[in-house]
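Protein modeling request. Please complete all fields; requests missing the sequence field cannot be processed.
Requester role: graduate student
Desired output: 3D structure, token encoding
Chains: 1
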Amino acid sequence: MPKCSFCGAEANESMLVNTYNGGSKDDVHFYYCCEEHKNEIKKYTDYVNKNATKFIVLILIDMLLFSIGMPIAFSINNFYLSLIFSVIPTIALGYIINKYPFATPNTNKSFKIEKSIRVTKILGVIIILIGIIIALGMILYKVIV
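Delivered output (145 residues):
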């Protein structure tokens, strides 16, 4: 018997939704155990369909700033630019992942949508905390040295 795509309980019905399945949009079968989870799945897929392109563009811009800004800041040996180009993209990445908790299709299948969202948001918060720790470490290093 199939499992609910949202929570993992035994599912008794399915629906076909056109949504992103990796890099492209496909018709994907989602199973659900109750009407509430059917609505949650629909809400999640609508959110993915509405924001997937924005998510990808924001991640690419963030990584571009990080990968170009860091070498430049370190090569000119500027502490403040190094701090800005290491901390801001890291915190922004955590925020983007937290705001758009899109896991891979395989993760959604393995953990189910509800748990995937929770795990992805937790990882986003961890990335934000790493950015804050990097900032504090760099500031303390500057004060000590």
